[in-house]
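Entry:
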Amino acid sequence: MLPDEPVLRVEDLHLRFHGIQAIAGAGLTLSPREILGIIGPNGAGKTSLLNCINGFYRPQRGRILFRDRDVTHLPPHTRAALGIARTFQNIALYPGMTVLNNIMTGRVIHMHAGVLSCGMYTGSAVREHVAHRAIVEEIIDFLEIEDVRSHLVADLPYGIQKKVELGRALALDPKVLVLDEPMAGMSMDEKADMARYVLELKEVRAIPIVLVEHDMGVVMDLCDRLVVMDYGKKIAEGPPPQIQQHPDVIRAYLGETGPLPVA
């Protein structure tokens, strides 16, 4: 794979549920060090597309290429091991576990110690646990949630839970990060924090990101390029200023002419 080649390609994807066409020939590419936004009205097929990328849904037609490897028919855990990490529109954490342990679950896919050494917690299992714990502690520091590392997730505010879910995704050592409405339900201050983390992941850690988000102000500020979907189809693609003025996008959102609102 050449340095400038897309890390992710989705080609001519079709997904149908009992006669309902969720995705109709959609495609996209994700370049290294890019934040690609996917936007569209409710029911446009955005989350369905993400579910195809990380393997929760199997498309009837089309291909998904990750780092030049066809992953279309691979299960979610295999894609995660390859480096496709995902957060969810609805928080999918373990509420009865601590923040630390929730994020540690993201490291399980990288653990290699045998059953015996794990059961006795000796030798390689101890060394491996220490190494994985160090990675998780670094993620906790990055997300600025040190003071709640030992708290049960169920006892934490919604905005903190969103950070924990991002932390678990980062624990997978992602080569691509897929974020499904990471700022939904957050306050303005919490959104600003999350936006800062997302930008740092792209700029400093060089992780390409696919972002679905309904806050158009956030999308326009964060994303390098946008793909717009409506009724399962891609209706536009380009940089945010161009998309904001695109007539098909305006009609999909507003049904009338005029610039797409970003506030």
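Residues 114-120 have pLDDT under 50 and may be disordered.
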